Amino acid sequence: MRQVGLALVSTSLLILLGSTFWGMWLAQQTDFSPTGPITNCPSLWSILRQNSIVALFFLTGIVTFGITTLYSLLKTGLVTGLALGLAAKRSGWINGLRPLLPHSVFELLALGCFGGVGFSPLMAFVIWMRKQRPVYLVWQCTLILLLLGSFALVAAGIVEAKISCQVIKLSIQTRGVLS
Question: How far, in Å, CA of 143 to CA of 117, rounded?
Fold first, then answer.
């Protein structure tokens, strides 16, 4: 069962990280530069609502055999990569990554889990066709990934609202003092 879960999550994370690097590369090729800093922080509820909408779209892969999950992973990774690349282009890699690091660990775990859940019907179908293992192991693993992803999503929202926002505010104040 552990191998099935690992395969589902690692596939999701590889797709997400690959498209993130693609987005960062694209951002380095553009001349676009955002003009103003973000000064207000979103509330915990707005972050949780937005993350839940993304997670639900990942979960629609259960019905579409992973097609919408693949699309969501590529789109989320590309947008994240573009944001990272533009932030790095504007203020350097360390300053660009600093606001994302506190909550990104939890958010990557959540996205990997929900991506794995979205790919689980496809994995169950492949296992059923090959008659390798009992298919119920995929569904057990899917439930575990769903629970783990939900907890990680809430943790990411809390850290993003409470810690990452403060890091952004401090970096803006420090940049203003040093300039």
Answer: 8
Q: Are 26 and 85 in contact (CB under 8 A)?
A: yes
pTM of the model: 0.76
Quick: pLDDT tens for 22-79: 777 777 776 655 555 555 677 888 888 988 888 898 888 888 888 888 888 888 888 8
**Distances from the Cα of 2 to the Cα of 41, 62, 128, 132, angstroms:** 38, 20, 17, 15
- For residue 83, the model assigns a pLDDT of 80
165-178 pLDDT tens trace: 777 777 666 655 44
Going 64 to 112 to 25 to 49, the CA torsion angle's sign is positive
If one counts every other C-beta atom within 10 angstroms of the C-beta of residue 86, the result is 20
Structure tokens at 135: 């298919």
Between CA 33 and CA 101 the distance in angstroms is: 22
3-state secondary structure of 56: helix
Return the closest-CA partner of residue 5 out of 134, 143, 155.
Answer: 143
Q: What percent of the chain has pLDDT over 90?
A: 6
Whose structure tokens read 């689980």?
A: 120
For the chain, give every domain's residue range: 2-28+42-178
